[in-house]
Amino acid sequence: MVADGRPVFHAIVRRILEPEFEVVACVRTSQELLELAPVHRPDVLMVDILIRTHGGIAAIQALRTGQSAAWRVLVVTTLNDPHVMARARAVGADGYVLKTRAAEELPVALHAILGGGEFISPALIRA
């Protein structure tokens, strides 16, 4: 499931990931994410930190409570900021990918977090 305010990014993610991975739904706000994730029950939630309504950090925090705590969460964002990444990880993100590296890193990140690991964009680590 992709949670990003830009429909063009939804199309980009589908092009990168399908057919290896199935994108079960795309939403544009954190409110839609919180409402529709339980309906679609995706294996991974890809969340932009800058998503409208409550923001990505608050959405991840909300998703990590109750029955949804087992979902894997991958942040996909433009924010190349170690402090933001640390905050996302602190509330439960399993990975962090920069949108500028999405074509190369999304498949690798998904394999890593679906396998129980984590993934942090190497570009962010070098920053």
Protein model, in words:
This protein is of the alpha/beta class and 127 residues long. It has a single domain (2-126), classed as Rossmann fold. The protein has six helices and six strands. The chain has helices at 7-17, 30-40, 56-63, 82-90, 102-114, 122-126; strands at 2-3, 26-27, 44-47, 72-77, 95-98, 119-120. It starts with a strand and ends with a helix. The model has no long low-confidence stretch (mean pLDDT 92).
Shape: globular
Strands across the major sheet, in which order? 2-1-3-4-5-6
Under the CATH scheme, the architecture is: 3-Layer(aba) Sandwich
Beta strand count: 6
* H-E string: EHEHEHEHEHEH
Topology:
Layout (H helix, E strand, L loop, with lengths): L1 E2 L3 H11 L8 E2 L2 H11 L3 E4 L8 H8 L8 E6 L4 H9 L4 E4 L3 H13 L4 E2 L1 H5 L1
Parallel strand pairs: 1-2, 1-3, 3-4, 4-5, 5-6
Summarize the structure.
By secondary structure, the chain is of the alpha/beta class. The protein has helices spanning 7-17, 30-40, 56-63, 82-90, 102-114, 122-126; strands spanning 2-3, 26-27, 44-47, 72-77, 95-98, 119-120. It has a single domain (2-126), classed as Rossmann fold (3-Layer(aba) Sandwich), CATH 3.40.50.
